[in-house]
Specification:
The protein has eleven helices and 13 strands. The chain has 321 residues and is an alpha/beta fold.
C-alpha cells in the first residue's frame, strides 16, 4: 500500500491482538485524535511470539519476537505506526524505522499475584512461580532460592486462568499491565508490587514505531514524554552496550529527579546463583538524551569490566538446557 500524501487521512495502527496490546493501541488512538488531530484505526497483527506458546521465550531465540511482523508491515507501508510495550522492542532498528514517541511511563515495577499467598515471603518451600522472564526468575531465585520458577506463556488472561486453576502458586506480571487492565483484588486476592526487583528496560512505557520518512513522524512526536524518553534512552543504551536483548537476564532502571539521572542494574544467571548489581548517578539536563545514553554506555562498561558479558553467555547456555 503506497502511503497517501494527504496529511489528514486515516492512519493505520498496527497492534498485537491481546487484550493488553489492544488497550495500548486504543490509548494511542485516543491520544492521536485528542493531541494531534489525527484519525486512526487499528489493525491486528500476529507476531511469532504470539504464535509459539508452548516454548519458553528464551528458547525460541531471535530478536523482535513481538515486533518483527509489525516492522515488516511498517516497511511495506501497510500500517503507519506500530504500538509496542517498550520492554519488547529490540535496541537496534532497521535504518528506515525509529521511535517517533515514548509515552509517559506507567509503574515500572514487577508485581506478585496469588490466590492463596499474600506475598513472596509467604510462599511455601518449593512453591511454583510462573514467569516468562529470565530476568524475573533470576531475581526471584536470588531472593528465594527454594522457589520453583516455571515458564508461563500466553496473554494476561491466560496467565490468570492458570493461576486460578492452581497450576501456579503465584505469578509475576508487570505492574503497568495490571493497572491498565484494572486487575484488582476482586480478580486476584493478593496483588503486591515487588519493589526489590529491577525491571526490564522500558518497562511501563509505550513506544510508537514509524518509518522515519513518514509525513506524520513529527506530528506524532507530540505524544513523547521527555522525562520517560530520557530514562528509557539510558536503559536501552545500557542493554545495547552489553549486547543483550529482551529475553536475557538483565534488569535496568533509570529515574530522573532534581536534574540527576540515577541508574540501577542487575545482570546474572537465571537461577540467581551469581549476579552483578550496581548503580550510578550523574547530573543531566532533562532534554539531553545523548548524555543519558552516554551514562547508560558508561554504566554498561562498568559491568563489562566485572565480567558481565561472560556471565550473560553462561546465562544463555543455561536458558537452553
Amino acid at each position: 500500500m503506497a502511503e497517501q500524501s494527504r496529511a489528514d487521512r486515516e492512519l493505520v495502527i498496527g497492534s498485537r491482538g491481546s487484550v493488553l496490546a489492544l488497550w495500548q493501541a486504543e490509548y494511542i488512538k485516543s491520544r492521536l485524535q485528542a493531541e494531534c488531530g489525527l484519525q486512526s484505526r487499528i489493525q491486528i497483527i500476529k507476531t511469532r511470539g504470539d504464535k509459539i506458546l508452548d516454548v519458553p521465550l528464551a528458547k525460541i531465540g531471535g530478536k523482535g519476537l513481538f515486533t518483527k511482523e509489525l516492522e515488516e508491515m511498517l516497511l511495506s507501508k501497510d500500517i503507519d505506526l506500530a504500538v509496542h510495550s517498550l520492554k519488547d522492542v529490540p535496541v537496534e532498528f532497521v535504518p528506515e524505522l525509529n521511535l517517533a514517541a515514548i509515552t509517559q511511563r506507567e509503574s515500572a515495577n514487577d508485581c506478585f499475584l496469588s490466590v492463596k499467598y499474600p506475598n513472596l515471603d509467604a510462599l511455601p518451600q518449593g512453591a511454583k512461580v510462573g514467569t516468562t522472564s529470565l530476568r524475573r526468575s533470576m531475581q526471584v531465585k536470588k531472593y528465594r532460592p527454594d522457589l520453583d520458577t516455571l515458564s508461563l506463556r500466553g496473554n494476561v488472561q491466560t496467565r490468570l486462568e492458570k493461576l486460578h486453576n492452581g497450576a501456579f502458586d503465584a505469578i509475576i506480571l508487570a505492574q503497568a499491565g495490571v493497572n491498565r487492565l484494572n486487575i484488582n483484588t476482586q480478580n486476584v486476592p493478593y496483588i503486591t508490587p515487588l519493589d526489590f526487583m529491577i525491571p526490564a528496560m522500558g518497562q511501563g512505557a509505550l513506544g510508537i514505531e514509524m518509518r522515519k520518512d513518514s509525513i506524520f513522524f513529527d506530528r506524532i512526536a507530540a505524544l513523547n514524554d521527555v522525562q520517560s524518553a530520557l530514562c528509557v534512552s539510558a536503559e536501552r543504551a545500557f542493554v545495547r552496550t552489553l549486547e543483550g536483548g529482551c529475553q536475557v537476564p538483565i534488569g535496568v532502571y533509570a529515574q530522573f529527579s532534581h536534574n540527576k539521572l540515577t541508574l540501577q542494574a542487575i545482570v546474572g544467571l537465571p537461577d540467581g546463583s551469581e549476579v552483578l548489581q550496581d548503580s550510578i548517578e550523574d547530573s543531566i539536563h532533562i532534554e539531553d538524551r545523548a548524555a543519558s545514553e552516554n551514562l547508560g554506555i558508561a554504566f554498561a562498561q562498568k559491568f563489562i569490566d566485572k565480567g558481565a558479558k561472560e556471565l550473560l553467555e553462561r546465562a544463555a547456555k543455561m536458558a537452553f538446557i
